[in-house]
Design goal:
Number of strands: 6
Helix content: 40-55%
Radius of gyration: 21 Å
Mean pLDDT: 88
Number of domains: 3
CATH architecture of the largest domain: 3-Layer(aba) Sandwich
Strand content: 5-15%
Number of helices: 13
Structural class: alpha/beta
Distance between the termini: 27 Å
CATH superfamily of the largest domain: NADH-ubiquinone oxidoreductase 51kDa subunit
Strand order of the largest sheet: 2-1-3-4
Length: 262
Amino acid sequence: MSKNLSELSGRKGLDDNLFDRMGKLAERDGAPDNTELDKLAKEFLIGSANAYGTTTFYDFLKPENKGKKAYVCNGTACVCAGTQDKVKEELSNHFKEDEIGHMTCLGRCHENSAFNYGGQNYSGSALRELDTIISEKDGAQDSYNVESFEHTILTEKFSSIDEYYASFKETLKRDSAEVLEEIKLSNVRGRGGAGFPMGLKLGFCRSVESETKFIICNADEGDPGAYSDRYLLEQQPHSVLYGMLIAGYVTHANHGILYIRA
């Protein structure tokens, strides 16, 4: 069933897919209107129950978040820090109780007191600047310290497009199988808890026979206590794109998708 739903949700292609359409339906009121959602379910042939079930899972689609103007983070790190009652109290000075919802983990685990307003995430001392934030609706740039031991790699300052991607252009002149073997020899591993070897994962994808393959970068950043991905996305975006390009080359993928939620 899940494979069928996947095929149906993307049957119109990447530019007109079910999940993206659901998000657009939720932009006005914070959650899709049921009538409009039913129409969307019929259009994609998936049934109302499946469409409704999907919207109840994601914070930015949930029916209970309809009409909300501000959201309190109730991720594990914030809750354990004991900061969120104060956040809700301060937000209550600006919004009605039924205008305050919640989102699970905004990726601000390093300083807590996290909340979302106007599509922007805030945390730490931002709570003391609510008047300015609400009047100006200006997203605050988060500040956090990132350092490296000895040689800088991920934290290396970006040079330029031509210089940074010069090595990628040279890689394209080599056999993709040879490049994959080099990745395996490097023992590069995933940054998640399992530390799975990247070369093996790319090899599995390469060996599958299919006319269409995707490289999907999971930039969800929803794991409590982890914000390494956000640093890469905000300050080292070309490292992410470079990795996706190399992965696409060695697996013979022809599409790349970077997934990040609201």
